[in-house]
Amino acid sequence: MEKTLSIIKPDAVKKNVIGKIIDRFESNGLRVAAIKKIQLSRADAEAFYAVHKERPFFGELVEFMISGPVVVSVLEGENAVAKNRELMGATDPKEAAPGTIRADFAESIDANAVHGSDSLENAEKEIAFFFAQREIL
Ligand code: CMP
């Protein structure tokens, strides 16, 4: 069983589609092992996305991620990292396959509804960034 980190981003939280997105996970073999709604601070967003700090979109990414609350969750299941990425679709919703979360709920490459860990190694780091071990059940 793998675990991965999911973030429902401020655009999707504002659209009131948290439940619809969680349903995609649950209906496709992933289980919610931990979940919370939080407002990221600027320091949180900069630290979480530190890997992108030299990229030209870093400033906008941080501004967007602190523009409203997010829902962070730990998803568990077989091949959870890859399964979550398949369900999310491509980073840019214009390129996301029909029926994926980003095709159905995202507006743009910045406001792209969800984040998901891109590897098992990053999943472990990202889960530890948001959750204590006792919160993951
Ligand atoms: P996410 O999976 O959260 O990881 C980094 C985010 O940066 C990505 O989703 C996008 O929302 C955002 N982003 C903005 N521009 C780009 C870009 N050109 N390439 C990749 N990610 C981008």
TrEMBL record:
A GO BP term, please? UTP biosynthetic process
Q: Give the UniProt entry's GO cellular component terms.
A: cytoplasm
> What cofactor does this one take?
Mg(2+)
MF terms from GO for this chain are: ATP binding; metal ion binding; nucleoside diphosphate kinase activity
Q: Which InterPro entries match?
A: NDK-like_dom, NDK-like_dom_sf, Nucleoside_diP_kinase, Nucleoside_diP_kinase_AS
User: According to its UniProt record, which reaction does this protein catalyse?
Assistant: a 2'-deoxyribonucleoside 5'-diphosphate + ATP = a 2'-deoxyribonucleoside 5'-triphosphate + ADP; a ribonucleoside 5'-diphosphate + ATP = a ribonucleoside 5'-triphosphate + ADP
Q: What is this protein called?
A: Nucleoside diphosphate kinase
The opening ranks of the lineage are: Bacteria, Pseudomonadati, Campylobacterota, Epsilonproteobacteria, Campylobacterales
